[in-house]
């Protein structure tokens, strides 16, 4: 009986995973690619590409909720209402960045530099105004021009979200922070900085596992842990202090 149950569980997870990724690929090719092409030909700009990224991923999560109905999604109204903010969040799963894209119509983020070399995907990343990270860290001099334009972007209701851990946590705990997110915030004089906590996405789609756990029942939660308003012009300002304050907010809410 145990072997049969494990086989059925494996088949269920495989079926859900297959449907989701087939939709992600074919849904883009059939339903969304014409709109991206139209945006490119009409010189729609970053905002239009970000809007279609938002719609594509919102539809993906609508399908995911349909296929795994027992998982409850609790996205706080405070998070949904965020605008003109640098958002830092913990990182548990591949789902985290695309979940935030699905929540915000205007969004930018940091993406691994390698992804910009992928056909089609890399083109969309560039047209969306996403920022490449480099091997030496999240921030480098080559990113300066893009980051300097961030003030105007944030002022136009855009959000920049960053995962300061840089990689997915394998044990659920908050990992070490990279300074890059906070250097970007300081360079573009970003205030406020919103600290967001994501819970249980790793239960549904774990790091280093190809299959979704379609039997999971842990609720997916996204909450605002707090707000920081750094005074970058103050002599007392310290990047290390800002990072420590952000980490304290994140750890306090992640453990609640």
Describe this entry's structure for a reader.
This protein has 256 residues and is α/β, with parallel strands linked by helices. It has helices at residues 2-41, 46-67, 77-80, 95-103, 121-127, 144-148, 150-155, 180-187, 201-204, 239-254; strands spanning 73-75, 86-89, 107-112, 131-133, 159-162, 193-199, 220-228. The protein has one domain (2-254). The protein is 47% helix and 14% strand. A seven-stranded mixed sheet has the order 1-7-6-2-5-3-4. α5 (121-127) links the parallel β3 and β4. The longest helix has 40 residues, at 2-41. The N and C termini lie far apart (38 Å).
Short description:
By secondary structure, this protein is of the alpha/beta class. The protein has ten helices and seven strands.
């Amino acid at each position: 009986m145990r072997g049969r149950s494990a086989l059925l569980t494996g088949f269920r997870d495989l079926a859900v995973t297959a449907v989701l990724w087939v939709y992600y690929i074919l849904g883009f090719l059939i339903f969304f690619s014409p709109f991206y092409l139209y945006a490119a030909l009409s010189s729609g700009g970053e905002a239009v590409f970000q809007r279609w990224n938002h719609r594509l991923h919102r539809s993906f999560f609508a399908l995911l909720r349909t296929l795994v109905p027992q998982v409850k999604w609790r996205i706080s109204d405070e998070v949904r209402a965020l605008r003109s903010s640098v958002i830092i969040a913990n990182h548990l799963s591949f789902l985290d960045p695309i979940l935030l894209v699905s929540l915000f119509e205007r969004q930018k983020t940091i993406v691994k530099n390698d992804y910009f070399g992928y056909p089609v995907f890399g083109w969309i990343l560039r047209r969306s105004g996403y920022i490449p990270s480099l091997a030496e860290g999240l921030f480098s001099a080559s990113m300066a021009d893009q980051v300097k334009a961030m003030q105007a972007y944030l002022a136009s209701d855009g959000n920049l979200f960053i995962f300061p851990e840089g990689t997915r946590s394998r044990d659920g705990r908050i990992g070490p922070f990279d300074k890059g997110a906070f250097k970007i915030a300081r360079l573009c004089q970003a205030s406020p900085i919103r600290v967001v906590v994501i819970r249980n996405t790793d239960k549904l789609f774990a790091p280093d596992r190809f299959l979704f756990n379609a039997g999971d029942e842990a609720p997916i939660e996204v909450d605002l842990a707090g707000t920081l308003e750094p005074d970058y012009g103050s002599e007392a300002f310290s990047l290390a202090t800002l990072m420590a304050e952000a980490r304290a907010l994140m750890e306090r809410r992640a453990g609640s």
